[in-house]
Amino acid sequence: MSEPNFSPVAAASFWQGAKDSQAIIFTYLPVSFAFGVSATQFGFSAWEAFFLSCSMYAGASQFLVVALLGSGTSIWLTALTVIALDIRHILYGPALQHLIQERLNLKKTSVWAWGLTDEVFASGMIKLSRRRQEWSESWMLGLSLFSWMSWALGSLLGGLFADQVSQMPQFLQAALDFLLPALFLSFLLGL
User: Is the pLDDT of residue 54 over 50?
Assistant: First the structure.
């Protein structure tokens, strides 16, 4: 009898990470669109909403930033509030590093670590917990980069089409207000 031929599991590629980001993208687009609409309602331009999504990329915190700044709160109080809300992100890197066995590339790590939202972190943890051999920095880079691009694009589109939202049926306008809480509830139920 011959021994079974076990081939090593290949690490997931950048494009596999991009493909795996689809679930995140489909949840990010409507919520980031709602953020773009919200930002313009508080007096920000579509491009300012886009810039905020490119530079801050913090989901619920972005809604908070435009609401606080739009209501006249100081930039310092706004910054402290957002820091307090997002302090949990400090724990994401060490939690992932604990499960990563290979040596990390500093350039790749700095890019995908910046994109560690709750959803990207959860996807990385699931991959490392269940299929550790398939995890790679390239996969993580594809996952985080495409997730971020969808958030930024949705914010820009929401800002550009905010005027048209007011002409939508009332139930669709109400749905936009419901999207963010529904997104977070769906992630809680998925845990």
Answer: yes
The string of pLDDT tens digits covering residues 79-137 is: 998 888 888 888 888 888 888 888 888 888 888 888 889 899 999 898 888 887 788 88
For residue 128, give the 3-state DSSP assignment.
helix
| One-letter identity of residue 37 | V
CA distance 155 to 33: 5
Chain Cα centroid distance, residue 135: 19
135-190 pLDDT per residue, tens: 888 999 999 999 999 999 999 999 999 888 777 777 776 776 666 556 555 544 54
d(CA 95, CA 15): 24
| Cα 24 to Cα 127: distance, rounded to the nearest angstrom | 15
Selection from 100, 151, 139, 166 nearest residue 18 by Cα? 139
Residue found under tokens 């402290």: 80
Decide: pTM greater than 0.90.
no
Task: Write the DSSP assignment of 152-182 as a string of letters.
Answer: HHHHHHHHHTHHHHTTS-HHHHHHHHHHHHH
